[in-house]
Specification:
The chain contains 16 helices and 14 strands. The strands form 5 sheets. Strands 1-2-10-7-3 form a 5-stranded mixed β-sheet, with helices on both faces. α8 crosses α10. The N and C termini lie far apart (51 Å).
Length: 383
């Protein structure tokens, strides 16, 4: 088995139609080596096997501290225990009314009838929702929105200097907020950021770098992700009126969330995660060796016909056990409960403020460029 001649994770074929390109690679060359030397896994079976084999496929892929999912073994377990405390069912239930208020306030200011860019609305909501949750000032909204765009552009550029500069800007924002809480001492606001500044791991206080890394993971990753997910969800609902009608009919929260997860499975904006091989391993008919870099393509795995049949077939209940949108194994996305709450709150607010949402023919959805998934823009008409 040899890689397709033009396989390149960011090449012209992927840029034209990433979903079709990933589907083609999964069927023709499920374990492919790109021009950088990194291997990409495309099938559900291979991606799942690598994701749960924490010994052979290490998460320690970055030169920078990434807490918790850039860590392995006992260190990961200790930090994951700290992080998971912030996303318990009880805390998410207590947060839900405030999250719904943020969504309702944002949507109430939209013109109906009128048109919106679902991705832009998702970006603004993500900034407001995260700022509310963390206790960050509203004055940061425009700066954070600008940062989301700059971060995506820097990622696409593959310019390490540019990427580092954008990351440094975000770290400076975070440090200004954590420093102010330390300076305030007992007078610091009672919010999640203050709680994290005072938190401990293995009996010792978290270091500044660890706190910044956790907050960067929670916010830097989530702000762009919620925007992309919103674009995918509202674009799908606008094009599939029967699914929109089902959500409008008053389904349970459990079914509402399952529908959102299934939409994201069909068009997964979380394209990939990286691993590094620690020992020789065979995947398919390929031999991967210690030090090889590996990319797990979640988007392709979530559309594998050997698991889902017709990958476009909408079946939330049947497909839920195999859905990899938030990953699998001990490195599964720790912020999934919060992301689910945010997406449910915003989608409900849009549906409750309208009688119908439709694609906007004057602003057709435009795909985001790799390595970003989903849409760069997604025009929606609010009726």
């Amino acid at each position: 088995m040899t890689a397709l001649p033009d396989w390149n994770p960011r090449g012209p074929r992927v840029r034209r139609d990433p979903i079709a390109a990933y589907d083609e690679m999964r069927s023709q060359c499920p374990v492919a080596r790109g021009p950088s030397g990194a291997w990409t896994l495309f099938t559900h079976a291979d991606v799942t096997a690598a994701a749960v084999d924490h010994q052979t496929f290490s998460n320690a892929v970055s030169a920078h501290l990434q807490v918790p999912n850039g860590l392995d073994e006992a260190v990961h377990t200790a930090f994951r225990a700290v992080v998971d405390r912030y996303f318990t069912r009880e805390r998410m239930r207590a947060l839900e009314p405030a999250m719904e208020r943020v969504a309702d306030d944002l949507v109430s200011r939209l013109e109906v009838p009128g048109s919106i860019d679902a991705v832009e609305i998702g970006s603004r909501f993500a900034v407001r929702a995260q700022s509310m949750w963390l206790g960050w000032p509203a004055a940061l909204e425009e700066e954070l929105l600008e940062w989301i765009g700059d971060n995506h552009a820097a990622t696409r550029s593959r310019d390490r200097t540019r990427t580092a500069a954008v990351a440094q800007r975000f770290d400076e924002i975070i440090r200004s907020l954590t420093d102010s809480r330390r300076e305030a001492g007992d007078a610091a606001p009672d919010d999640v950021t203050t709680e994290l500044v005072r938190d401990r791991v293995d009996g010792r206080p978290l270091t500044d770098d660890e706190i910044v890394s956790i907050l960067r993971n929670w916010t830097g990753g989530d702000l762009g992700s919620i925007a992309l997910c919103t674009g995918v969800i509202l674009n799908y609902l606008a094009k599939h009126s029967h699914v929109q009608d089902r959500l409008r009919s008053g389904v349970s929260t459990r079914e509402f969330d399952a529908i959102l997860d299934e939409i994201l499975r069909i068009d997964d904006p979380f394209v990939s995660n990286r691993r590094i091989v620690t020992d020789t391993v065979t995947v398919g008919d390929r031999t991967l060796r210690a030090g090889d870099r590996v990319v797990l393509n979640w988007t392709a795995a979530n559309r594998d016909p050997r698991i889902f049949g017709d990958s476009e077939q909408f079946d939330p209940e049947a497909n839920a056990p195999y859905n990899l949108v938030y990953g699998i194994g001990k490195h599964v996305c720790p912020g999934r409960p919060l992301a689910t709450l945010e997406l449910r709150a915003l989608t409900r607010a849009v549906l409750e403020s309208t009688s119908r949402i439709e694609p906007d023919p004057e602003q057709p959805a435009k795909r985001a460029l790799p390595p970003v998934g989903g849409f760069a823009t997604a025009g929606i008409r609010l009726v």
